[in-house]
Write a structure and sequence with these properties.
The complex is a heterotrimer of chains A (about 400), B (about 300) and C (about 325).
Chain A lengths: L1 H14 L8 E8 L6 H17 L3 E2 L2 E9 L4 H14 L4 E4 L3 H12 L4 E4 L5 H4 L7 E3 L6 H12 L4 E7 L2 H13 L3 E8 L10 H9 L4 E4 L4 H12 L8 E4 L6 H7 L9 E4 L8 H14 L5 H19 L7 H9 L11 E2 L5 E12 L5 E13 L10
Helix pairs in contact in A: 2-11, 2-12, 3-4, 6-7, 9-10, 12-13
Chain B lengths: L2 H32 L6 H19 L2 H22 L9 H23 L15 E5 L2 E4 H23 L1 H11 L1 H6 L4 H23 L9 H16 L4 H29 L2 H26 L11
Helix pairs in contact in B: 1-5, 1-6, 1-8, 1-9, 1-10, 2-3, 2-4, 2-8, 2-9, 3-8, 5-6, 9-10, 9-11, 10-11
Chain C lengths: L11 H21 L3 H23 L10 H16 L5 H23 L4 H21 L9 E2 L15 H23 L2 H11 L1 H7 L3 H27 L1 E2 L6 H14 L6 H19 L3 H15 L3 H8 L5
Antiparallel strand pairs in C: 1-2
Helix pairs in contact in C: 2-6, 2-9, 2-10, 2-11, 3-4, 3-9, 4-9, 6-9, 7-8, 7-9, 10-11, 10-13, 11-12, 11-13
Classes of the chains: A alpha/beta (about 400), B mainly alpha (about 300), C mainly alpha (about 325).
Chain lengths: ~400, ~300, ~325
């Protein structure tokens, strides 16, 4: 009982803090800062901090205050920190979100309170279609788009028989559905492996199956640490020459330095698709990548790129209304124009507020300093819109 | 199903089995002898992997990393025993669960603080990085063969220690009647520390052997710990033999289920239904196995005598 | 010798003060315009209900379940699945939550209760994991991503749960009801048998009590109360996912019970409060807050035998 009384006194003490001044833009940013997945969250946090630095900590004359929240890789925790940002910190924008399930759990808290929600990564089909909302914007992509581009690449390269591996969760299923939608050959085998906290990281059984399946190529989606583990075992299983590797969201600048340290050469030359690449030739991208490398000594990941963009998107909204944060309609109209310098170059928003953008084929290469990175080699889709936009009734 | 694939998958299952055994052996001994539930046993698995990865990258030698990581893991195990675990032998299981749940949180956070969130990975030496022909026409990674061999060797050694040596006699006596060992005039505290440390080293060895395949990452031990618990419960708590057979059984069933279940389900279900249900059922398989075994044998397959 | 029948927990004035504070809290929070803390209190009370239900089997009858959060999941899905079909009838959802949780407890209890000690811990975990993977694989209900619940349970407009304060008082009412129920059960003839079976099952059987049936009943009641907590949780968060059934959630429930003191009426609620408090305050200060929570748990295990609630009860000077 005493504890509850203590709780209340803490509550009261917190309330005694000075109320926020209105001459600030408050942005909440929810990502994963604990557990092994924090490596992604840290990349996003670094990119946001860099962006705020690059804009001089100001948007339309107002000071920017960033408040980071840790979702702990759990939807429930993500919703809690989102609630806190909305109800207690009274932020003007909530951005971030790596994981689809965390975003789905949290969206109501933000949108229900009439605030802007900006996804800097997760792109579940629900939010692109039925659940689309006038105050929701994405600076990333809808889950299906990237694997659809990969399916097209496989067709172009004359792949007839494909083996698919992906974790067994919603985004994984979206990725598989995406590649199946565009790939015209035969799918000779498919493994959906256990995901979640006790995710399967030893793929020996599946790789043995894949090797014996007679496939011409293997399509893989393993985000985060599973990606590195997969690549190592792919090489150890002796499949490098037998079964060419095509990936989405698996080989990024988070996995590559580790793979390079471990001398996993199998990954060099492998292909993946993405809406962006660190060597994409746009002025904003030069500024971002060189700034990021200078400040943190490593390549930014696509997670970082999307997070960097999210700050500039918000900035364009705040500046359009001259810092009048009460003007929601004005800010929304500004964001819908996507009139900001994006690292991916110019793009448009669909009516569901997902980008209509290019998708590129990228190859893993060694850069001039000897670091492994990805390089854009081809454009697969131009101005590609996700397939769910039609379901969106705004 | 094709027989080459079957052989490969059996080998893969064995490899998972011996890893599980290395974890389960310490768990079951500590449980059997000290009546101590150690939820944090998986932390030694993680710590072993991180030590080995750091040292391997440092010295650029896996062998050196391995040889130095083991005593370091032992040291961590002994320190944890002296500081925390020792004071909880007399408490009931609930206090032990609470404390070791706390230990998990502390261990994971300390690893995060020391090594950062990204985890560590390192390369295998060139000699271990290839494939070897195990049977005509069947090739298998050398390193996984090595894991299986090391695991079987340790299982044999452990069996010898427990069955043939004085320490082993005390361990067996402790597992079936704790008070008797004390009555024999043995310094029971020394024995306990020894057993706990040995368990920690075996867990650490398992962790550092898997690290080059996956990687050293935060929470890696918690993921496999639950499976190790399944193993010792199936085998019978306190029984090394049970842990060994349980580990192989779980390793094989898990691996074979993952690889052949969808094919088998396709014989009775539609393709679509088989594809959606196979991953779920194969993930559940070991729990179904455990529930079934406990239904018929509530004390597991090999309960130590006299309990 | 320990008394078998507990007197009502002492320090009535403290209990009354706590209830009074909880009754007045929404007004204070509204006055201070800090709605987030209403959420914190609601989550705290829902977890207190769940922890109290676990305490019924763990604290009073010695059954350590590492799968108790599965009932939170069942209760929450009993809101989410009907809502998915646009069925928001509160009574139906509540009946599904209690019935589903009770049925699951009955079926699994028949198997689990054959085992003891660590085997019981693991078999409860096994059933929870099976349920977890089942919901992960049902794509219709969102699989791993879970389901968003658009509207809270509807009681024919008589009691509007969309209003957070109304929901708060419902949760508070459920908590008080749960505590009262646990108190009545534990101190009844039934509770005496249960606690007797904890310390010496064979003797109770020899005296002629079919202890298996008693323990099974207790297990089912506990599951149903936790199902109630799940029903409230589903309404509160407006979102459900299999993650709610994850074994670490069950581990947290156990930690709450032990932290507060197993076998004491208010212990689990105190444990839940400490847990939420640490989460709310420490997580603000550092992302490494798990370190301090872990240390606290170790210290309580080592020194605070009987948990914080135990310390509190000992103050009364009971023998």
């Amino acid at each position: 009982m005493k504890i509850r009384i203590t709780l209340l006194s803490v509550v009261v003490a917190l309330l005694a803090l000075p109320a926020s001044a209105a001459d600030k833009v408050k942005i909440g940013f929810v990502t994963t800062l604990t557990t092994g997945a924090a490596v992604i969250g840290k990349d996003m946090q670094d990119a946001v901090n860099l962006a705020v630095e690059d804009i001089g900590g100001k948007m339309g004359g107002l000071d920017v205050e960033m408040i980071f929240g840790d979702d702990g890789f759990k939807p429930e925790t993500g919703k809690q920190v989102t609630d806190k940002l909305v109800k207690s910190d009274d932020v003007d924008f909530v951005a971030g979100y790596i994981w689809s399930h965390v975003l789905l759990a949290s969206q109501k808290s933000v949108l229900g309170a009439g605030k802007f929600l900006i996804s800097a990564n997760a792109g579940p089909s629900q939010l692109a279609g039925k659940l689309c909302n006038k105050n929701f914007f994405s600076t990333s992509w809808q889950n299906d788009q990237t694997p659809m581009a990969m399916g097209e690449v496989l067709n172009q390269r004359g792949i007839k028989k494909l083996y698919i591996m992906s974790p067994n969760y919603a985004a994984g299923k979206n990725m598989v559905a995406g590649v199946e939608r565009t790939f015209k050959g035969e799918i000779v085998g498919k493994d959906m492996t256990k995901w979640g906290k006790d995710a399967q990281l030893d793929f020996s059984a599946e790789l043995a199956k894949a090797g014996a399946s007679g496939a011409d190529a293997i399509f893989v989606f393993y985000p985060g640490k599973a990606g590195g583990a997969f690549i190592k075992q792919y090489e150890q299983a002796g499949l490098t020459d037998k079964l060419p590797l095509y990936t989405v969201f698996t080989i990024d600048s988070i996995a590559l330095p580790k793979l390079q340290k471990a001398k996993m050469k199998a990954v060099l030359g492998s292909l993946n698709t993405q809406f962006w690449g660190p060597d994409l030739d746009t002025p904003q991208n030069h500024r971002f990548v060189s700034g990021f490398k200078k400040k943190y000594g490593r390549y930014p990941s696509f997670y970082a790129a999307q997070s960097y963009d999210s700050i500039f998107l918000i900035k364009s909204a705040v500046e359009a209304v001259g810092g009048n944060l009460a003007d929601m309609d004005g800010m929304r109209a500004a964001m819908e124009k996507a009139d900001f310098p994006s690292v991916r170059g110019a793009f448009r928003y669909g009516k569901n507020h997902f980008p209509i953008q290019n998708f590129y084929l990228r190859k893993v290469v060694e850069d001039s300093d000897g670091n492994w990175t990805t390089s854009v080699v081809d454009t697969v889709f131009e101005d590609h819109q996700d397939t769910y936009a039609g379901e969106c009734k705004i | 199903m094709d027989s080459t694939l079957l052989v490969i998958q059996i080998l893969n299952g064995l490899q998972l089995g011996v890893l599980l055994f290395l974890l389960a052996a310490g768990l079951t001994l500590v449980f059997g002898i000290m009546d101590f539930i150690n939820l944090a046993h998986g932390s030694f698995y993680m710590v072993g992997a991180f030590f080995c990865a750091t040292l391997t990258l440092w010295f650029d030698s896996f062998l050196l990393g391995l040889l130095l990581a083991l005593p370091l893991t032992l040291a961590v195990g002994v320190v944890v025993e002296l500081l925390v675990v020792r004071h909880l032998y007399q408490e009931d299981h609930l206090q032990q669960i609470l404390a070791t749940f706390g230990l998990i949180l502390v261990a994971d956070t300390l690893v995060h603080i020391i090594w950062g969130p990204e985890g560590l990975t390192f390369a295998l030496p060139e000699v271990l990085n290839g494939q070897v022909t195990v049977l005509p026409g069947i090739r298998f990674p050398i390193y996984r063969i090595l894991i299986i061999s090391v695991g079987l060797l340790i299982a044999a050694g452990l069996y010898w220690v427990v069955a043939r040596t004085r320490i082993g006699m005390l361990i067996r006596a402790g597992a079936s009647n704790r008070r008797m060992v004390g009555a024999l005039g043995v310094d029971i505290r020394y024995l306990f520390t020894l057993v706990f440390g040995a368990g920690a080293v075996m867990a650490g060895l398992a962790g550092l052997m898997i690290a080059p395949i996956t990687e050293a990452s935060i929470g890696m031990g918690n993921e496999i710990l639950i499976v190790a618990f399944v193993v010792i419960v199936i085998g019978g708590i306190g029984s090394i033999k049970g842990a060994f057979l349980g580990a192989l059984l779980v390793g094989l069933i898990d691996t074979l289920g993952r690889s052949f279940l969808d094919g088998m389900l396709k014989l009775v279900l539609s393709n679509q239904a088989a594809e959606t249900s196979a991953p779920a059922i194969s993930a559940m398989l070991i729990y179904i196995l455990m529930a079934a075994i406990l239904y018929f044998r509530p004390q597991g397959l090999f309960p130590p005598k006299g309990r | 010798m320990r008394q078998l029948v507990q007197k009502p927990p002492g320090r009535y004035w403290l209990v009354f003060a706590a209830v009074l504070v909880l009754l007045l809290a929404p007004a204070a929070i509204a006055y201070l315009d800090q709605p987030f803390y209403l959420d914190v209190l609601m989550r705290l009370m829902i977890l207190a209900i769940a922890a109290s239900s676990l305490n019924l089997i763990l604290g009073y009858s010695g059954m350590i379940s590492l799968g108790h959060s599965v009932y939170i999941g069942i209760g929450a899905y009993a809101v989410g699945i009907p809502a998915y079909y646009d069925q928001y009838n509160g009574l139906l959802q509540l009946a599904l939550a209690l019935g589903g949780a009770g049925l699951f407890a009955l079926v699994t209890g028949l198997i689990c209760l054959r085992t003891r000690g660590a085997y019981f811990i693991m078999i409860t975990l096994a059933f929870a994991q099976m349920m977890y993977f089942t919901f992960v694989s049902i794509e219709e209900y969102g699989g791993d991503d879970g389901l968003v619940i658009y509207a809270r349970s509807d009681f024919a407009g008589l009691y509007d749960l969309e209003n957070n304060v109304r929901l708060y008082y419902l949760v508070l009412g459920c908590l008080l009801l749960t505590l009262l129920l646990v108190h009545r059960i534990v101190n009844s003839h039934f509770g005496m048998v249960i606690r007797g079976a904890k310390s010496n099952d064979r003797r109770m059987q020899a005296v002629g009590f079919p202890t298996f049936r008693y323990r099974l009943t207790c297990y089912v009641i506990s599951g149903m109360i936790c199902g109630l907590a799940g029903w409230l949780m589903g309404n509160f968060t407006g979102f459900i996912s299999p993650e709610m059934m994850d074994w670490t959630r069950s581990g947290e429930l156990i930690a709450m019970v032990i932290l507060g003191g197993p076998g004491s009426l208010f212990g689990p609620a105190i444990g839940a409060a400490v847990f939420i408090l640490m989460e709310t305050v420490l997580a603000e200060v550092t992302i490494y807050w798990h370190l301090y929570l872990g240390l606290l748990l170790i210290l309580v295990a080592k020194f605070g035998r009987g948990g914080l609630g135990g310390l509190f009860q000992r103050n009364r000077g009971t023998p």
